[in-house]
Write a structure and sequence with these properties.
This protein is mostly helical and 215 residues long. It has 2 domains: 80 residues, no CATH class; 86 residues, no CATH class. Helices cover 55% and strands 0% of the residues. Helix 2 packs across helix 5 and helix 4 runs antiparallel to helix 5. The longest helix is centred in the first third of the chain and has 27 residues. The N and C termini lie far apart (80 Å). The relative contact order is 0.11.
Length: 215
């Protein structure tokens, strides 16, 4: 028959185990999992670079190494192991949590330098937005009415493409062609370009019909 002291010890261990088990069960509630910046970027329909994306990394680094100061500390983009260093910097930044005080700055950096590049047109497709056709009309002198309507709104706007500050003089068709051609170029701007987000917003304004944007 066990002694009273043995029973007390066993009881104490049992109580401690119960308490410990209770803490373990409640831990997810006391310390809920926080989203990382990586999860936020992926939720926004971007895919992170990996070692198999050598051509995309080269494309990004061609722009990265011209930046002054360098976006990532202690990484100029021209080192011998530059591909691996970029992936390492991106991994480190992507593991920060969403409540970081510099969240917005870090997200912009990740979407510019750490993901498979997208064009403005790709980004529109992510959200099921289709731009107006930028192909030449069947008649070389007659622009589609949708472009003429956009052109008239564009002329009176203060939010123009920096490369097309004015449509100058000319017929409505000539001016509509200038806007259509500008949109065709802007749709190809890549995500590692500094003006990408601004360009995307202006493309939505001037290169997409209201009906398509609404859908």
């Amino acid at each position: 028959m066990p002694s009273s002291s043995t029973i007390k010890v066993a009881s104490g261990l049992g109580a401690a185990g119960a308490i410990g088990g209770g803490v373990a069960l409640s831990k997810p509630y006391l310390f809920p999992n926080k989203a990382t910046l990586r999860s936020l970027v992926e939720a926004d329909k971007w895919k992170f670079l990996s070692g198999s994306n050598s051509s995309e990394i080269s494309e990004i680094l061609a722009t990265y190494k011209s930046q002054n100061p360098s976006p990532f500390a202690n990484f100029k983009g021209d080192e011998g192991n530059k591909d691996d260093l970029l992936l390492e910097k991106c991994k480190e930044l992507s593991e920060k949590y969403e409540d970081d005080a510099n969240k917005e700055e870090f997200l912009r950096k990740l979407k510019r330098w750490c993901v498979i590049p997208k064009s403005v047109q790709d980004r529109l497709s992510d959200f099921n937005i289709t731009p107006m056709s930028t192909e030449d009309p069947s008649s070389s002198t007659n622009e589609d009415q949708s472009w003429i309507s956009k052109m008239k709104s564009y002329e009176s706007s203060n939010s123009k493409f920096s490369q097309l500050a004015s449509l100058d003089s000319g017929t409505d068709d000539e001016k509509a062609k200038k806007l259509r051609t500008r949109c065709k170029d802007e749709l190809n701007v890549k995500s590692f370009t500094e003006s990408f987000e601004v360009t995307l917003d202006k493309v939505k304004l001037w290169c997409v019909s209201i009906q398509k944007l609404g859908n």
